[in-house]
Amino acid sequence: MNLPDTMNCMMLVAQGQPLVAKTVAMPVPGHGQVLVKIIACGVCRTDLHVADGDLTQPKLPLIPGHEITGIIAKTGPGTSLHKTGDLVGIPWLGYTCGKCKYCLKGKENLCSYALFTGYTIDGGYAGYTVAFEQFCLPLSQKFIYPSMAPMLCAGLIGYRSWNMIGSDAVNIGFYGFGAAASILIQIARSQGKKVFAFSRPGDTESQNMAKRLGAHWAGDSSQASPVPLDAAILFAPAGELVPKALSDTDKGGLVICAGIHMSDIPSFPYSLLWEERTIQSVANLTREDAAGFFSTIAAIPVHTETKLYPLHEANTALNDLRKGAIHGAAVLVMD
């Protein structure tokens, strides 16, 4: 494959400022790395937290983006898992040490020395990117379509959250109905679960999408759940939803906070937590999560609700996500 000397990208130069269109030198894969020609990159709410400064330790300047699908264009020294032409996905977790106490316990998502795609290493708002080959996920040919890019985070984090819920849970609340929830509800329905979808007050479009995808009930977060929930997953980064979800959850139920960032959780009476209710966060993902998720969606016809933007309109995509104008997921396609 003949490679150009330069590539186009959208770069975060300073948090709180719009991304800047740049032409930069083509990255070169180092030891254990591959160069990937990007097909598409999903626009995740985590990207918004990075751009807006909610996550405070990005590499700067930074090429954001961690829901990447692409084709390997070149392999670096010391690589053996992939070859040129392979279709791969690059998720949020971009590197782990394999030696710290968390890695040794099989919890690589908590690695003390982890690197994160589109946060501490450059990501997918670009024509090409380099990635450690061990963290490039082999993909089936259906991922050649840009609409599949959100599976690399919205799908994976939703799946990790889902696996924290006991198999005996039937009535499950989704608080916030965006990309992750729109994917996960399809898995939930395939397993005979009843999903109760809560959106922001007035967001009837998200409620209608939830109903169209098979929600048992859909309403806004000011409403009480019509039945006690066995478990709840909070996709929305709104801390005030934690006591709300606890109040909707039955005895012994689980409230999972699926985001990487959330506004402060207000104080609430102990009675909401009592009767062995549990609150649990989700941190990052593992390659084992990815293997399980891809195996699951191979057997279930999961589709995504997406809006496509050209790379140079990344700021528009982020602004649309910021103001809640995207129902499903935004995806950047390369110019």
Q: Which CATH C-level class of the largest domain is it? A: Alpha Beta
- Compute the number of structural domains: 2
Q: Name the CATH superfamily classification of the largest domain.
A: Medium-chain alcohol dehydrogenases, catalytic domain
Radius of gyration, in angstroms, nearest whole number = 20 Å
What portion of the residues fall into strands of 2 or more residues? 25-35%
Helix content: 10-25%
What can you tell me about this protein's structure?
With 335 residues, the chain is of the alpha/beta class. It folds into two domains: 6-150 and 305-333, Alpha-Beta Complex (Quinone Oxidoreductase, Chain A, domain 1); 156-281, Rossmann fold (3-Layer(aba) Sandwich). The protein is built from nine helices and 17 strands. The strands form four sheets. Strands 3, 4, 5, 8, 9, 16 and 17 form a seven-stranded mixed β-sheet that branches. α4 (179-190) links the parallel β10 (171-175) and β11 (194-199). α3 (154-163) crosses α4 (179-190). The protein starts with 5 loop residues before the first strand and ends with a strand.
Question: What are the defining features of this structure?
Answer:
single chain, 335 residues, alpha/beta, Quinone Oxidoreductase, Chain A, domain 1, Rossmann fold, seven-stranded mixed sheet, six-stranded parallel sheet, 9 helices, 17 strands, 23% helix, globular
Please render the helix and strand layout as text.
Layout: E1 6-11, E2 20-25, E3 33-43, H1 45-52, E4 67-75, E5 87-90, E6 93-95, H2 101-104, E7 115-116, E8 128-132, E9 137-138, H3 154-163, E10 171-175, H4 179-190, E11 194-199, H5 204-212, E12 217-220, E13 229-234, H6 241-248, E14 249-257, H7 270-273, E15 278-281, H8 287-299, E16 306-310, H9 314-322, E17 329-333
Parallel strand pairs: 10-11, 10-13, 11-12, 13-14, 14-15, 16-17
Antiparallel strand pairs: 1-2, 3-4, 3-8, 3-17, 4-5, 5-9, 6-7
